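Tokens help. Our protein:
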Amino acid sequence: MEIKITYTIDEHDYMYFQRYALYRSKAYRKQRTIIKYLLPCICILALIFILLTKEFKLPPFIFLLVAFSAVSIYWVKRMPKLSEKKILDSIHKKNLSTDAKTSVMGERTLTFTDDKIYILTKEIESKMNWSALIGFEEDDKFLFLFVSSTSAHAIPKQKVPQWEAIKQMIETKLGESSKVK
């Protein structure tokens, strides 16, 4: 059995995958959690310190409590978006320069056979065994074929009508348990 697909990866598709990869990264999730709650913890410690001093006065303390609470709530709500934007802007600037753009975007043809997967782009012609895939994931827009924990072939479902047949072939070749965690 052979399935051949041709589709185009544009800048939007590329950045979608980068965002997807960022959110599935354990290191990013850990870093985001630490940073997200660090400032509120510092504010709480500052308030405890103020409470323990002998020159504690109620009106300034209430003002500080309200101010620290407002800053902490703003930080917890806004920080993840700011962090994500900074990282994605860096990826965009680095990987979508004119030289790098040609290797990550553009038209590509993937041919799935019983033995191999063939990849054809303007610059690259390669083939890989099914065993080279470490797994796959999907969301509502893409099917991701992972060749490492951070590198994948992203197949946009809306641009590839036969994506369900590809998914079925992948599950047959790799097994249902090969979905990347």
Remarks:
- Strands lie at 3-9, 106-112, 116-121, 125-129, 135-138, 142-146, 152-156.
- The mean pLDDT is 81.
- DSSP finds five helices and seven strands in the chain.
